[in-house]
Write a structure and sequence with these properties.
heterodimer, A: alpha/beta, Alpha-Beta Plaits, 12 helices, 14 strands, B: mainly alpha, about 80% helix, globular
């Protein structure tokens, strides 16, 4: 549905987006990750046709967003950053306006407004003016606007920004549900959202794509992926270190905490021994009182940091 | 036509925006007060000798270019500046509409609003008809001229509004811009020019003046050249607005 090819954007001499290419098909929810100023919003603005690319092309449903702008935009629902809305209008008036401009009339318009009011839980504030709304409601109003014409493509710039945990949860569920039938791109800073809603994630840094894969694939890039955390009582840290070093699958052992009663250690595997480490540790630990033993999945935030800020991440390891 | 329905939707929204804020009411009240005060107190409506011919032309319409100088930029300043400040411009221009439809829709809304303000000055027409027997044809053409002139000012305000996200900046720049279009035909300025400038230069300068072109309407003449002047200022200004919006987005 969405095809981005060698897309670049220059602001003056600064390359905000630098030759990025990717595509999103129907049924996919693509998480767009990256530090502030990495070029996420700029990319989304180019996909929606708000700003023209300096070079490269974007097609949505086969339509070029510059050459066949109107046809492409009909397919797109867009939630811009900070969820702007006409503050002097009521929620109802605003949704009616966006439905009208999307070409909905009469019964179809009424139904569409009714549907999005339901999906976004806007019933209680329907006739309130938008400037009096809380941030959560305002956000959902703008979100409602983006899905009013039931678009095939949804571009959401930080859809959960500024929402409380319950609202975040609702929006994620909504994105995941809609993602079954649409092509969705959404940007976020919150890494847990990638797990909660995405089928695939792209990490973008300084205008370039630095990682692209399913959340599972990204996590397995983490040094932690496959590491085993072990907590035992009645034994010294040194003894654990010694016993672990004898195992062939172990790369190194880090003692996380040591107190009067128990020792917590994290054991990192050598490459390509995923999955078997926990078993061999359990065998090696015969006779110890194990209170905790589990395999780490790898952490996205650590992957994110090591990719986007390689210098500080290595420093922390030392 | 599809394009027309987009324009209609935008015009409807913009008009609604005027009346959901105090701006519309403040504007109309001030406009009517100014009109009344200047017509009857300063304009010499009741001066001896005036009543028998009962004319609205000078006491009433003479002031319009000057009222509009401050009032029209106040109406136009929010058109694009507000969209840019709040960020709704990103919503509007990613809708399946062309920038032209948005520009024309917004302009029309403000222009219709100004038309309403003009229509609400009708008591002055009733008064003059009650007191004497004016030429109502002249009054009608003067109203048309006044509305066209307001449109030209408004289109200039659209340009300045698109240039900035600050409404005050937009207001000030458009007042200066509109002032130029008035002063170009203001008698004292022309007299000043006559001292040194060649006649062809003076005629070029005065041909840019809204006062010169408004004059014809005030005499009851619907000259196509005057109509074309105002319409071309409007079209040119709206075109400039579209260029500014495009370059702004291109970064």
């Amino acid at each position: 549905m969405i095809k981005v090819q060698e897309l670049s954007k220059l602001f003056g001499t600064k390359r905000a987006v630098d030759e990025i290419s990717f595509s999103v098909e129907r049924g996919e929810v693509l998480g767009f990750l990256g530090p502030n100023g990495a070029g996420k919003s700029t990319t989304m603005r180019m996909i929606t046709g708000f700003i023209p690319p300096s070079s490269g092309t974007v097609t949505v449903g086969g339509f070029d967003v510059v050459e066949q702008a109107i046809a492409a935009r009909r397919l797109i629902g867009y939630l811009p950053e900070n969820a702007p809305a006409y503050t002097d209008m009521t929620v109802y008036g605003f949704l009616n306006f966006t439905a009208e401009i999307r070409g909905l009339r009469g019964d179809a318009k009424k139904k569409a407004v009714h549907r999005v009011v339901g999906t976004c839980f806007l019933e209680p504030v329907l006739h309130q003016s938008i400037e009096t709304l809380s941030k959560g409601y305002r956000h959902r109003t703008c979100f409602a606007q983006s899905i009013i014409h039931d678009p095939d493509v949804l571009i959401l710039d930080e859809p959960t920004d500024g929402l409380d945990p319950n609202q975040k949860h609702e929006i994620r569920q909504l994105i995941r549900r809609m993602g079954e039938k649409k092509a969705i791109i959404f940007s976020t800073h919150i890494l847990e959202e990638v797990d909660a809603a995405c089928t695939r994630a792209i990490i973008i840094d300084r205008g370039k794509i630095v990682a692209n894969g399913t959340p599972h694939q990204l996590r397995s890039k983490s040094e932690w992926a496959g590491a085993v955390t072990l907590r035992v009582t009645g034994i010294s840290a040194a003894a654990i270190n010694e016993r672990m070093a004898q195992l062939s699958a172990v790369k190194r052992t880090a003692i996380l905490r040591e107190d009067a009663t128990s020792v917590t250690a994290r054991v990192f595997p050598k490459p390509n021994v995923n999955g078997v480490l926990a078993g061999s540790i359990a065998d090696a630990a015969q006779g110890w009182r194990i209170e905790e033993l589990h395999t780490e999945e790898g952490r996205l935030d650590e992957v994110f940091r090591s990719i986007t800020m390689p210098d500080t991440a290595t420093e922390e390891k030392k | 036509m599809n394009s027309w329905s987009h324009i209609k939707a935008i015009t409807k929204r913009e008009l609604g925006a005027y009346f959901s804020s105090p701006l519309a009411y403040v504007f109309i009240v001030i406009f009517l007060l100014l009109c009344g005060f200047f017509t009857f107190m300063v304009g010499g409506f009741f001066e001896p000798g005036r009543i028998p011919q009962a004319s609205l032309v000078h006491p009433f319409f003479d002031w319009h270019p000057w009222f509009y100088l401050f009032l029209v930029p106040a109406v136009g300043m929010r058109l694009w500046a507000e969209e840019r400040r709040v960020g709704t411009i990103e919503l509007l221009l990613t809708m399946p509409i062309t920038p032209w439809e948005a520009i024309v829709g917004k302009f029309l809304a403000s222009w219709l609003f100004l038309a309403l303000a003009l229509v609400l000055t009708f008591p002055v027409v009733l008064t003059v008809n009650y007191l004497g027997s004016p030429d109502n044809g002249v009054i009608l053409t003067a109203y048309v001229g006044s509305w066209l002139m307001a449109g030209a000012y408004l289109a200039l305000s659209c340009i300045t509004s698109a240039m900035t996200r600050n409404q005050v900046v937009s207001f000030i720049i458009s007042v200066v811009l509109c002032l130029f279009f008035i002063l170009a035909g203001f008698p004292p300025v022309i007299r000043l020019l006559e001292g040194w400038a060649a006649p062809w230069l003076i005629s070029i300068v005065t041909s840019f003046s809204v006062i010169t072109h408004f004059d014809g309407f005030q005499r009851g003449v619907l000259d196509s050249r005057d109509v074309i002047f105002f319409l071309s200022v409007i079209v040119f200004s709206l075109f400039t607005t579209s260029v500014i919006l495009r370059t702004h987005r291109a970064g």
